[in-house]
Amino acid sequence: MRIVVVTSGKGGVGKTTTSAAFASGLALRGFKTAVIDFDVGLRNLDLIMGCERRVVYDFVNVIQGDAKLTQALIKDKHADTLYILPASQTKDKEALTEEGVEKVMRELEAMGFDYVVCDSPAGIERGALMALLFADEAVVVTNPEVSSVRDSDRILGILQSKSRRAIEGREPVKEHLLVTRYSAKRVEEGEMLSYKDIQELLRVPLIGVIPESEAVLHASNQGVPAIHLKGTDVAEAYADVVSRFLGEDKPLRFVSYEKPSLIKRLFGST
Amino acid sequence: MSEEVRFESGRFEGIVVRSPLVSPARLADVLHKRFAGTESYFSGEPAVLDFSEVRDWPEQVDWSGLVAFFRRLGLQPIGVRGVPESFDAALKRLHLAILDEAALRLAATRPAEPEPAPAPTPPSQAPASPRPCAPTTFIDRPVRAGQQIYAPEGDVVLMAGSNPGAEIIAAGSIHCWGPLRGRVLAGANGNLQARILATHFGPELVSIAGVYQTFENGLPSPIANRPVQVKLQAIQGQSHLLIEPIDTI
Q: In chain B, which residues have their Cβ closer than 8 Å to the Cβ of A154?
């Protein structure tokens, strides 16, 4: 079993959207996948996954022994091999204990899960530390702006010092950089950092670039992970991310901006 | 005759005064019997005042009184050991060196102080004289925002550069392969010979032996993101930072 943390430091950059799409993508490839919401107190993942009405028990209930893991795991509607472990809305972050999280990870492994995706809360406090503690790999979500890049750098430093792999001196957590909310047009116009700038700053291998899109908003409002929005660039970009994560070679898409041609401008896009 | 001034590390003999008392009056009482009122019992030896045995620290300590007291005995107090951090400022005002792990504290906070050029520490005050072969610290991964590399001895070599928000502190020089960003402090214990060398120069702050410079308005183009060295230069008795591009072949 591989544990993947989706983290960023900064809030609102697309961690939960990415966790939902990425976990769904792994499940669509046939891997038995669990996605866990570590944002105790601010439950969001269940909304994005469209299962908020089916939450009975949550992560904290399992940690505190009030429910069994099998009772709390919610089976996804879109992908057969995907399960969601929602966060508690009523408890606070102190409810997440190291032993408790470790126990849940062990049980998931015993249940035959291939991947566990940990949706980290923003910040560098307990919830975020617990989300990255057991990680084997990390997807660091960054927006093309300096404060987001700085926070991602900070969280990369924490991964290098506070993860179990770091503490025990094992092989370091494998890092992936994911740039989200990317507008090739605004990069072209010099209003945004380019993905190359970001990569140069963070020096972490790039796993993908997700374009800024209205579709993401629609997807979260409908409770459908963005990867299921057939025909949208966001869905394709996330599918590429999953492919690259699994070791396939995919060229970057949606990163260049072409000015609309005269004909297009005159007759609208065809 | 050569007029070259050299700063070398060295050891020297002195007196260590271990005192469980910090009140000059109490000390005078206790030592009065011992020295039987003889003024200048010692003959000007440098002394380190060790207060590790003090149990209850008062809120206020009459440091100048203490120094005066030991002077009267004929000692020259040059530094202290085992004193709580809260007295750092008071000790600094009296130019007393802090000679335990706390020296680290002092070195780390020095650049934040507004004085542009703290007086170079005389060799006799050097907190811990570096051993003949100080170890070099190699850092193979990028130093990231919020991370601090501290080398109390020797040089630091960054093999993958540092990022904005990182802090690199070395007693010796700092060498950087790759982008150098963040706060970079060489010669943290007062080594005036320390330098900062980088292939892609772009820090927020550089400091050598406490002489620092920030780059609030960005770096001038001849040095920005280019091979650069930073060293100290004495101009009319004042230390200045010299930041210059390195000509590479």
A: 144-146, 165
User: Is pTM, for the whole model, over 0.95?
Assistant: no
Mutate to test the interface with A, among B140, B141, B144, B200 (most CBs of A within 10 A): B144
SS3 of residue A265 by DSSP: helix
**φ and ψ of A74, to 5 deg:** -105, 130
- Residues A30, A246: Cα–Cα separation, whole Å: 12
Sequence-ordered list of residues with C-beta below 8 angstroms from that of A253, at least 6 positions apart, any chain: A209, A233, A236, A237, A240
Q: Establish if A161 touches chain B: CB-CB under 8 angstroms.
A: yes
The C-alpha torsion from B152 through B156 and B158 to B163, rounded to 10°, is 40
Q: For residues B246 and B172, what is the distance between their CA atoms, to the nearest angstrom?
A: 19
Q: What is the separation of C-alpha B207 from the centre of its chain, rounded to a whole number of angstroms?
A: 12
**0.95 surpassed by complex ipTM:** no
Dig out the tokens for B42 from the structure. Answer: 């010692």
Q: Structural domains in chain B?
A: 15-108 (3.30.70.260), 137-245 (2.160.20.70)
**What's the pLDDT tens digit per position in A162-202?**
999 999 999 999 999 999 999 999 999 989 999 999 999 99
Name the phi and psi angles at A102, rounded to 5. -60, -40
